[in-house]
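User: Can you help me understand a structure? I only have the sequence.
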Amino acid sequence: MITIRYYYILFLFTFSVSSFVAQTTIPFVDFNNYFQSFQDESVRMIELQRILDFKVGDEFVSYIDNRGNLRLFDGEEVKDITNLNVEYQVSDHLMTWKVGPTLNLWDNGKEQTLTFNARNYQVRDSIVVFEDLRYNTVKVYYDGKVYDLYSVVSELNLPIHVGENIVAFKDNGDFYKVFWRGKVYDLGVWNGTIEFQGGTDVLTFNDPTMRTFAVFEQGEFLDVEKFFMNKYKAGRGFIVYEDLNNNLIYYAQGEKKSLTYFSAKFWRVVDDIVVWEENGFVYAFFKGQKYEVCNFIPEDFQLKNGTFAFKNVVGGISIFVEGKTIELTNQEVQSYHIYGNSVIVQLFNNAYVIYSNGKIHKI
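Assistant: Let's start by predicting it. Here is the structure, written out as tokens:
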């Protein structure tokens, strides 16, 4: 049975890190195939020789050098991780690499082996969920510790849903549970399936027992609506859903806010930002405010943290960041990426346009 408790919060409690992420390093490969980093308003060399691949977190960049070695650059120095051929993954704050069945982790400068018998695993902003075949157990790494979620005697499978720092799973007795910040919370028994949507510090779902639309936040299961909702997503400490009248609703900490009363052709939720279409215009909701971003629907866009980057009507790149819409370039672009809240645009002449810390740089 789900515990229902209604409460009102008189002040804003910060669930997690600020939406503004200061990017330590903005990596790119220049026209000479040098691997470089833009940081502190200047360019710094990482590798003189051409690299094979790279992946970017909020505080670091991991890459495979020309000899096949896995290395990491944290904005200050290059660190050798392994000279073996590995499979590696990167989230905002974590990196894993797998050598055969051995799963290893890098977290804020510290390395450790999670298991010598890994199979499937998922890496998110603050957690790693993995199968440990030695004990036929699913485990989760969070904040320096490894926790057991459940063990089975039959076929092992990963949890139903893995958010950025929250996990929904079902044990052997069909008992649904939630792992959050090192603790497990009991939800209830249900023989069928439940579709969860989790972000950071929040998880939302249609509760089949109470027949309500519910949310898990701050260690409590709460009813948000008296009926099931068809579409819902979770961000960083909040959820967004379409109600029965197709209105788009924002919910956080016991309070609701209508974002639009018009049926949105599309809407997205990522980290701290919500974007949607309304009568041919695109709007964003960020830090409690609604903003008009552009008067057309972008065919190509990216969202991360508090930044919305999109192709404008002339084929260049514009961004919405910290409540402002900024045109970065009207030239044709080869690629663009959001790193933290910085944006890097590669032009077809191999020049770059970078937006970082409120300034536009051309290199």
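Now, to help you interpret it: Residues 1-20 have pLDDT under 50 and may be disordered. The chain has no helices and 39 strands. Let me know which part you'd like to focus on.
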